[in-house]
Amino acid sequence: MSSLTANQPSAAGVQARSKVNDLVIQIATSNGSGSQSANAILLRSIFQMGVPVSGKNIFPSNIQGLPTWYTIRANKDGWTARRKEIDVTIAMNIESIQEDIRELRPGGMLILNSELKQFLNRSDIQVHIVPFNELVVQVCPEVKLRKLVTNMIYVGVVGNLLGIDLAEIQKAIDKQFRSKPKAVELNRNAATAGYNWAAEHLVNNREFLIERMDKTTDKILIEGNMATALGFLYGGVTVVGWYPITPSSSVCENLIDLLGKYRHDPQTGKATYAVVQGEDEIASMGFVVGAGWAGARSMTATSGPGISLMAEMAGLSYFAEIPAVITDVQRMGPSTGLPTRTCQGDIIKAYFLSHGDCRHILLIPGNVAEAYEFAMESLNLAERFQTLVFLMTDLDIGMNNWMSDAFPFPAKPIDRGKVLTAEDLERLKFFERYRDLDGDGIPYRTLPGTKHPLAAFFTRGTGHTPAATYSESPENWQANMDRLTKKFDTARQKVPQPVIEKASGSDVGIIAYGSSDIAVKESLAQMESESGLKVDYLRIRALPVNGAVRKYIESHRVAYVVEQNRDAQMASILRMEYPDLAPKIRSILHYDGMPLDARTVSDGVLQSERKK
Amino acid sequence: MSTTVTEPAAKTPAVNKIGQPLAAYRGAASTLCSGCGHDAITNQIIKSAYELNLESHRVAKLSGIGCSSKTTAYFLGQSHGFNSVHGRMAAVATGVNLANRTLLNIGVSGDGDTASIGLGQFLHMIRRNVQICYLIENNGVYGLTKGQFSATADKGSVQKKGTENDMMPIDCCALAIEMGCSFVARSFSGDMKQLGTLIKGAMVHKGTALIDIVSPCVTFNNHEGSTKSYKFAKDHEEALHEIGFVPHFEPITAEYAEGSTKTIDMPDGSKIVLKKLHRDYDPSDRDNALKLLGQARDERLFLTGLIYMGKPQPELVEQKHLVDAALATLPEAQIRPSAEVLQKIMDSLK
């Protein structure tokens, strides 16, 4: 599948912003207050109303107490990227109340916990003061549950104000708590209480509304890390090594759940997979490389700091030609950095990771459906090219809720690459581990356990001959490096190809990748409607790139590379690939840790184009 | 008259029970220094594999980086080998074990590789009970980088250049016992009989089996003042017992049947026979084993033999309830769930 069709809106929708099915809701709570379920239910209720929607967590690196926000964007045209302007705020947290009130747009709607009403200092917004603490006492006799249940009351209140059917809210509650009837009842009661109280007590000018549509039929709502985990499940992963790190942990946690449910031998009930949590990322990557060498389809998931620790093994995988997959759910900065904020800051590092001359294949999904598809493909490519493959997602894709078409069953069989069996060896009467027999740079391998006198070989990071014997000869070293280059060049045509998302004949083009996609698409419509500027768009889906990207840059006067890092990492790689085209490559950079929004892209292009 | 040339009849080389000559278990020629203790260990690995009738293709040879780690190229040339990354063989072995549980893993490491850079992985590997016969070729020194101390160098040991080590050594055997390893032995590269016996025992052990083998470095650590020299080891060696290994296909010989002996059953049906020397040593007593190691350290004695052997514990692949076949070669039908399952999952997300 080339790209998602779920979120392909028309340009017309952006022109006049209607307040029906076009709004951003921000819920401000404190971390650890259990608002996650309530927010998911509100999101799902809107989804069930048939309105395209997305949900983003903006959370602190903290277990309990610090402010956390959840942003829902509902948009009839499918624009579900982040939008900075907030229409509706649900203010529950004293820690962030002043900021929350300040940031609501003029004319916006504030749902305010009555305990916080003394902070109200604006008259240009509509305000609904709700006595949550009184309401919760009536629906929840158990004191220790009240904090949690309060969240469900705001779902009812806002549901009523926005015109969401109570039945949809209740259906979403049933789905969320399906196995816990007591929780279903308690939460249904709380939502209903909030809903009814709002109907009775609040004056609703019906300015912000959710009305029923049919834009979510057959769609799914899913977090990117779950999509990635599903991809590895269906990609036939057999060995997983991992070490917890935000924001990647839920890739492996979801995968563990899925494998536990769906990957057992039907006769014996035994596992057809192994997951081991390592003592650190070095060990986790060691498991993956060892397992890959022995013939498993193996992967690990981590984030920036973990990638650093895996660097030595990455070089070995590249040079000794061992299949391995690393999922990098990118986050901000070194060490702790901003572990709960998103970025695309590991592109250069991952591409060249390790010592000596190293280059790795990077798959860069632009949405959750591709996260699923590319996770599967990463295992295929790792075995086909006998090398390390990175699956590059980020916190925005990985930990946020996205709408998507349902994922299709894989169209092609699992690819194990060039593996020779004992029967093959008997037929060929020849085997040299690092000999390029096919002219594509990819040698053949055998797996340990292959019963044939020709099968064995010795794997080392040291220099080696095509027959895998030790060599320090300059000729052998260089010839091997050149073959690795050839192999990498072969990969250019086999990785997910770039997609021309929009070709309007304009001389201005955008190049983007990963989670920037949906914001870039919205920006294209925005620029056209606001300024009449038509802009083309090519989306890179993998590295290394091939001639299609070159052709695209050549055919435009200027190519703006939109990316979520400070150092213009993809633009730098493109300038390296095409030095003659460097003057055409410009950058639009976003690196404050928040997901990219269309305005940032449009402003960047428009400002630059005005200067020309 | 015809000329008859008579040649001596070609001597048929001796073969083991699977028809393999000893030479089939050799590898490439060693590039280590002449007289290196490591080569003696390599020879014992070759001999042990021959005597145990190992099928070469069932063996994976694994190592980290260092002189010791190079030796995996010098034995079992018909087995797959992987000379990986410094201090990380333990993790690589874990991955190999998970990918193909039918392989016998033979890991060769050094004191720098295991006790310095790789100590964490070494301990976690034992904790997980990865299936491996793990040999430390311990010379207390970094040979490949020309003579720096490792973490097993004894306090007071003197470098070739005269520098004295002022740190206490790490005792890999004591640590292994602490971590739950159920086969822990120490030996000396110069004691071929004991070493060969222990290697065979370690190869048939279920789970992680460790032998810490003092193997003097003839170039950088075999001088006066080194506690890992041939002379020091010979002078200070104290064997716990005389030790014999009886493969499961051979009867126990008279040599071990008489006198004060203790027979230990191995999981594959073979036996280890300990013949008592001057000490009434019971290798199944964990606390005593640790106590003895402590005493030996204080007395600067170098204790050899089977120091501890406990009841075999579930291996990693058993803890993980893996299928009996290698995960590496499972067919697609076993590793890709059905379209119906996917449909069910998709429906739950709608």
Q: Would you tell me which CATH topology of chain B applies? A: Rossmann fold
Name the assembly state.
heterodimer
Considering the protein shown, what is the CATH homologous superfamily of the largest domain in chain A? Pyruvate-ferredoxin oxidoreductase, PFOR, domain III
Largest interface: A-B, 73 and 60 residues
Note the total helix count of chain B: 13
CATH class of chain B: Alpha Beta
CATH H-level name of chain B... which superfamily?
A: Thiamin diphosphate (ThDP)-binding fold, Pyr/PP domains
Give the class of chain B from helix and strand content and strand pairing.
Answer: alpha/beta
What is the distance, rounded to the nearest whole angstrom, between the alpha carbons of the first and last residues of chain B?
A: 99 Å
Query: Helices and strands of chain B, in N-to-C order?
Result: HEHEHEHHEEEHEHEHEEHEEHEHHH
| DSSP summary: helix tally of chain A | 21
Shape verdict of chain B:
globular
Low-confidence stretches of chain B: none
How would a textbook summarize the main sheet of chain B?
8 strands, mixed
Overall outline of chain A: globular
* Helix content estimate of chain B: 25-40%
Under CATH, the topology of the largest domain in chain A is which?
A: Pyruvate-ferredoxin Oxidoreductase, domain 3
The figure for the number of domains of chain B is 1
How does this structure look, described?
- The complex is a heterodimer of chains A (612) and B (350).
- Chain A is α/β, with parallel strands linked by helices.
- Chain A folds into four domains: 12-215, 3-Layer(aba) Sandwich (Pyruvate-ferredoxin Oxidoreductase, domain 3); 222-405, 3-Layer(aba) Sandwich (Rossmann fold), CATH 3.40.50; 422-494, no CATH class; 499-611, 3-Layer(aba) Sandwich (Rossmann fold), CATH 3.40.50.920.
- Chain A is built from 21 helices and 22 strands.
- The longest helix of chain A is centred in the N-terminal third of the chain and has 21 residues, at 181-201.
- The two termini of chain A are 38 Å apart.
- Chain B is an alpha/beta fold and 350 residues long.
- Chain B has a single domain, classed as Rossmann fold (3-Layer(aba) Sandwich).
- Helices cover 31% and strands 19% of the residues of chain B.
- In chain B, strand 7 (183-188), helix 7 and strand 8 (208-214) form a beta-alpha-beta unit.
- Chain B is globular and about 75 Å long.
